[in-house]
Design brief:
Length: 275
């Protein structure tokens, strides 16, 4: 079996010579984990997007550590070679550093090999404390969906002027100094992502952040055409599994109604009488 991917091995992919592109996909259950791993991704992010794409909440604020641990366990039980990254949900690292460490540990006990959390300078103390507890941390800047009520902007794209781009770079550098293994950049202009990528020694992993990041992350359901509602501009759908699934279920329903399912070979039979 090829070696498991760890946070240090992911971090070491970026050298002075460049970075072998990092491929990260979200997954929320064992079938998703198996698919991601069989496709050879480097990291599986059990993201708090589970709130949207699986649980149909309007934002990511509706879930807690228990829900995240439940989904991380399901992915970890698929036994992937890829690094399992557990997303720290809203309020799990905002109250105190002790609380942040306990919550990060709960996600590690559920099967995560690293945790991800949103925010820059204000989260440095939590990041340091979690790393001090021997848990690798991945940062997340740009559009941070847990800040939905404070971002207060109609547009999702962040760091669109020089001042906010510089603030984002400062946040990224502070996280790097605190010891993060990688940084997710969400919904920022391509040139800003390129500047952050250039400024950091740790890899950047983009989503809606253009082609210059060291890697890319995408939501499983978006990639496979399982998303309900509007598909963001940065998503390329590689399959339409919703249509495939509806066609399969309709075909089965038609067969049931026409009494063509189950067939004799799909049925159990009484054992032949003993003679
Ligand atoms: O929760 C998540 O899936 C994420 C990705 C969108 C990066 O944070």
């Amino acid at each position: 079996m090829t070696e498991r991917i760890t946070a240090p091995s992911l971090r070491s992919r970026k050298t002075r010579l460049g970075c072998d592109p990092i491929v990260m996909l979200t997954a929320y259950d064992s079938p998703g984990g198996r698919i991601a791993d069989a496709a050879g991704v480097d990291a599986i992010l059990v993201g708090d997007t589970v709130a949207h794409v699986v649980l149909n909440h309007s934002d990511t604020l509706h879930i807690d550590v228990g829900v995240m641990a439940h989904h991380i366990q399901a992915v970890a039980r698929s036994d992937p070679r890829a690094l399992v990254v557990g997303d720290m949900p809203w309020l799990s690292y905002h109250l105190s550093v002790e609380d942040a460490v306990q919550n990060a540990a709960a996600l590690v006990r559920a099967g995560a090999g690293a945790v991800k959390l949103e925010g820059g300078l204000r989260r440095v103390a939590a990041v340091r404390a979690i790393i001090d507890a021997e848990i690798p941390v991945i940062g997340h800047l740009g559009l941070t969906p847990q800040s939905v009520h404070t971002l207060g902007t109609a547009s999702k794209v962040q760091a669109k002027n020089e001042e906010s781009a510089e603030a984002l770079i400062k946040d990224a550098e502070a996280l790097e100094t605190a010891g993060i293994s990688a940084l997710v950049l969400e919904a920022v202009p391509d040139v800003v992502a390129a500047r952050v990528t250039e400024a950091l020694d740790v890899p950047t992993i983009g989503i809606g952040a253009g082609p210059h990041c060291d890697g890319q992350v995408i939501v499983f359901h978006d990639l496979l055409g399982l998303t309900h509602g509007r598909v963001p501009k940065f998503v390329r759908q590689y399959a339409d599994l919703t249509s495939i699934a509806i066609n399969a279920v309709s075909a089965w329903a038609d067969d049931v109604r026409a009494r063509k399912f189950p067939s004799d070979s799909e049925s159990y039979h009484m054992p032949a009488p003993q003679t």
